[in-house]
Amino acid sequence: MKKIMALAVVITAAAALFAYNPPVGGESVYRLSEPNMLASASSASGGPLFTVVPGSITYNPALTALNQRTVFDLSYTGLVDTNNINQTENKYAQAFQLGLIIPTRWCVPTVTVEGAFSALPEMNIGNQITIHSGVSKDVTDNFYVGMNMYTGFYFGYGSDFTIGVDLGVLYKMNDISFLKSPRLGISLMNLGKPITGSYDVTGIDGTSSGTSYPGILTPHVSFATTLFSVKKMSGGFSFDLAAPFFQNAVINTALGFSFLDFINLSVGWEANIRELVNGNEVNLPSIGISVKFAINSSGISKKNEDWAKSEITTSASWQQLYGGIQAISGGMIMDLGMKDTSAPEIILWNGEE
Length: 353
What we know:
The protein has 353 residues and is mainly beta. 9% of the residues lie in helices and 47% in strands. The chain has one domain: monomeric porin ompg (Porin, Beta Barrel). The protein contains four helices and 14 strands. Strands 1-2-3-4-5-6-7-8-9-10-11-12-13-14 form a 14-stranded antiparallel beta barrel.
């Protein structure tokens, strides 16, 4: 029986690999719905400035292990097709994301709900809603692990569903020459059931045969570091390489700059090799900005003065995709409570002899 099950798994995986034909933009669908992820190229190591939002778990579930505050994220992206070659009535698409991080004493649970709805000819990803639920935890001061469970529902072009798990680790390294606080992120994403060819959207080769996205069994390696930090300004860099289905290479790179610790500017760029080989337009770099505001409410601080240290971050980003799709994304992140910056106090005796 075990041999039969193992053979079935091998045959299914082989068939999926042979039928690899994701829609254009399908392998990067999660980054479209959140401005920070769109701007910093969705890094598995947290991006150049280590900007971690709930949706970050879709690229590495270990990233949220360092969060000490409850985080709520709400974002929306409009996709306006300004390409003259689009002669259809489909000129607008959209995506959204809701996310929540709730740190506990034992681990850091995270939940995200992400949706994308697009019938644009240049990016025919269809309609999908995906739910990720993950946990992350520190193993040592420098090593973190995480795991997600996810399920996705696809509709409007047939119907199908996905279900599976994601695994990830994050390692904080010692300084390397001028590279400060370098981080290495490694994840293995989309381990489970992909959608099948019964879901009728246009794949990367221009047909609907073998459509499946995001890519099942996707290894992802990322490196990020701080390049400089002077007075009230710092800058960082990140580089990511993913291999969906082991049949493609997706390269992400980003630069980030922080001013006065409350204004962040990011520039990112993604290159999908199979999309470029199939003649798709080169995407322009993405640009994003976020501004952080402290919450100073006397009503809140009277009840719990720690909540007066909460923050709201508003973010916006833009990128031109596939020759004329204008992705305009905006969102709000609420960090509730204040960070724990003091070391634990250990008392060995109470002073009595």
